[in-house]
Fold this protein.
Amino acid sequence: MAVTLPAELLRQYQRFSLYNSPYPAHDEGCAIDLYPGALRDGRTSAAPSPISGVVRETRAVTAPPKPYAPEHDHLILVDCDGPGELEGLTARILHVEPAVEAGDRVERGDSLGELVRAGFFAPWVDNHLHVGLRRPDQNPHRASGSLPLALGIDLRPLEWDGTGTVASTGETYAVLDAPTHPDPGETFVGVRADNGRVLDGGLPHYDGGGLHQRAGTGSETSGDEELEDGATPVCLNGDRLGVARGRTIAWDDVVVTVNGEPITGLSLFCARDAAFGAKLICPERPLEVGQRVRVRVRPSLER
């Protein structure tokens, strides 16, 4: 059974993703990345705790070597007493240089320390907390093995026709002005797949992604066309992305294009901030603010 993350936990953060990661800890939606709001200079450093409880342990862990990140990341283990059904579980939190130590009590929203960039990040990834949850009888130090997570919020799918104007850029990415958040600061939204569910994941630069839907609306795949093996095709604007088994998508061998030219991919997540828009990962093809683009997903043989 999945552990439900309550609304009061998720609403502490501006964005989240269960699938937008290349690491096995996120397989089947068994971990979540939580993105706090940015500071005035555009950077994010505060690491508000998603849970309440007692710190069991903190330790440095080796991260993959990257020129833009320190050699070590950090793991914080917290024995939870809330919120909701998280009571009695152990939280594994990464990407925070801890300002807490074993025996400290933390309340939800308290600072755990300062967010750090780690070698686990691709260069286009913003600072965030990685969180997984374990039962008391599970090994809390293994990277994989956390419990599957469910969302205790009403998530709104936003239709997007694949077009937009570049609103902002970084060295490796560009953010479009579409789709537009209809109620910034309140509802969490995401890009709507053709089947009505919200897409999550790095398409196709990570191995797979996921599907979310409005809370309390039944099975993730009810009513979808099924293939012979029980999987369901997932499309965006008629372009097939892959197939879903349950809520987890295996991408097809596809390429994302901008105005007909291939880029690394499309970053898909859930957000409630006004700056929400399609995020294009394009280190090989810089885009300019104000540029009008059309995004399509094509089989790689059609490149």
Notes: The longest strand covers residues 52-62. The first helix runs from residue 7 to 10. The mean pLDDT is 92.
